[in-house]
Task: structure prediction
Amino acid sequence: NFVAFATYATNLSPFDGDSSADVYQRDRSGDVTRLVSVNYLGTDNIRGFHPSMSADGTLVAFNSNGPATLLSVGAWLQVYVRDMATGINEMASLSPVTGFEGSGDSEYAELSDDGRYVAFQSRAADLVTSDTNFAPDAFLRDRSTGAVELVSVDEFGLHTSLGSSRPHCSDDGRYVVFYCSNSLVAGYSGVGHFLRDRIAGTTELVEIPFPWNAVHPTVISYGARLNSDVTHILLGTTAYIPGAGGAYNVVMRKRVAGQDGIFLKGSTYAYP
Result:
């Protein structure tokens, strides 16, 4: 029923008086289009892009350099969640360490279905005390508790990432899939997508497996999506796939014991 989108159009709201990108939400049944990226007073539009919605459309996350809240300095891009019912903006990339906005660009927010969890990537080094790599990392914020967790860690829970991006969390916030510029598991030396189980404390490889991507080892990520029970993962990747080559592909990874495989254009490929 709801569609969230970013646009440079200036004729969708009387508040939109500039040429920057803005985030809107379209209520298809109510035939109403509402501006989402507004300041904390609700009186003016602010730059906004990369929206994500909760399942019922009540909450919309987006990126902006503000001022979307009173704590917005505007020095970096931040992740915000707007409650469309109350008109209140919340900064998801707020640092629990300092109590202020994160000290680096935060973007590509993804809300869980119920809106409790927000996954995002950030260059901020002060969202957690263990972030020391001076590179973008994948984080998850629990909006109920205010806790922020670094999820782009290896299978031992250590922060060894050379840079991670485009996270997406499961409906219950337990799992987060993300792309990493280095391997986070033993026996694999490439880059690609990894899945973090926050409850079990495990990190597993979900990228196209060896030996396929050995042909095209520099994998580029175009994001990943989890289904509701995390049995299937949709990947945008440049990894080599038999019959498809090393070009850009969208593939579905089936993550079921005894049935693991890659699905592409209606076909299933098995591997050792």
Remarks:
- The radius of gyration is 19 Å.
- DSSP finds no helices and 20 strands in the chain.
- The CA atoms of residues 109 and 120 lie 4 Å apart.
- The first strand starts at residue 2 and ends at 7.
